[in-house]
Amino acid sequence: MAIFIDENSKVIVQGMTGAEGRKHTARMLAAGTNIVGGVTPGKGGQSVEIGQKELPVYDSVGKAMADTGANATVIFVPPKFAKGAVVEAIDAEIGLAVVITEGIPVHDSAYFWAHAEAKRVAKGTASNFSGTRIIGPNCPGIISPGKSNAGIIPADITTAGRIGLVSKSGTLTYQLMYELRDIGFSTAIGIGGDPVIGTTHIDALAAFQDDPETDLIVMIGEIGGDAEERAAAFIKENVTKPVVGYVAGFTAPEGKTMGHAGAIVSGSAGTAAAKKEALEAAGVRVGKTPSETAKLAREAL
């Protein structure tokens, strides 16, 4: 099985006619993703040939959904237009919005996150719409190997299998996928490292816990904030499957801003050592390097 995206997902690409959108649409198609169209305002009615497939272009997400039945979108839109693109997807009530764009202002991310929550609450239980799940921004996306790939994660570095992976870091997502490729993954999800993101470690942990074909969870965090500490508390109370972790930043120099925009360390809070301690207190085995983390995952299985 898989979480959030599978072979039944119908995917559109916002910004498909741009250079990045076109390039990664071709890669997603090659990975078997069921891409059914793209959205570029002002280019509705046109079509583009990508990966030997003729894809229709729509002016709006709502029109694309009505014509194709799309239930997921991948957003390759420049930062200054990203807020509007995500809000449009939320207003169209699409189920999943994967926001790849890097450099979105934090207040824009906070706005569309709050807009998604307000929309979900306003619809209440009287509707089949349970909300738009946002993944990202500033993330590599999500892949269920052999089923669907929404984003920029390389599809040829791993196989389908029994591990669920959730990570703040795109690069470390790829490394762990490759190191554990012989075991394989149910789903790997890169949630992004910005201060405000949609799907969190906890959201992914809960979904993997409920997935009967995910036997082990690998969680990758990094210095800054308290997301990993909150995830540790959730694991202690709610997760019965083995969890192996890695926290990037053990060797980061004190007092220096590093990596993602969310990697801000204040005093002892947000350090790799503090996160490791919290995770280990919750029963998570934490590696000091990605390779050691892969070794711990093998032992846990």
TrEMBL record:
Its EC number is 6.2.1.5. Keywords: Ligase, Nucleotide-binding, Tricarboxylic acid cycle. It comes from the Bacteria. Substrate binds at residue 174. GO terms for molecular function: succinate-CoA ligase (ADP-forming) activity. SMART domains: CoA_binding. The active site is at 260 (tele-phosphohistidine intermediate). Residues 4-104 form the CoA-binding domain. The keyword Electron transport does not apply. Pfam families: CoA_binding, Ligase_CoA. Pathway: Carbohydrate metabolism; tricarboxylic acid cycle; succinate from succinyl-CoA (ligase route): step 1/1. It is an enzyme of class 6 (ligase). Signal peptide: none annotated. InterPro entries: Cit_synth/succinyl-CoA_lig_AS, Citrt_syn/SCS-alpha_CS, CoA-bd, CoA_lig_alpha, NAD(P)-bd_dom_sf, SUCC_ACL_C, Succinyl-CoA_synth-like. CoA binds at residues 17-20, 43, 100-102. It catalyses: GTP + succinate + CoA = succinyl-CoA + GDP + phosphate; succinate + ATP + CoA = succinyl-CoA + ADP + phosphate. Gene3D superfamilies: NAD(P)-binding Rossmann-like Domain (3.40.50.720), Succinyl-CoA synthetase domains (3.40.50.261). Succinyl-CoA synthetase functions in the citric acid cycle (TCA), coupling the hydrolysis of succinyl-CoA to the synthesis of either ATP or GTP and thus represents the only step of substrate-level phosphorylation in the TCA. The alpha subunit of the enzyme binds the substrates coenzyme A and phosphate, while succinate binding and nucleotide specificity is provided by the beta subunit. Belongs to the succinate/malate CoA ligase alpha subunit family. Heterotetramer of two alpha and two beta subunits. This is Succinate--CoA ligase [ADP-forming] subunit alpha. The lineage of its organism: Bacteria, Bacillati, Actinomycetota, Actinomycetes, Pseudonocardiales.
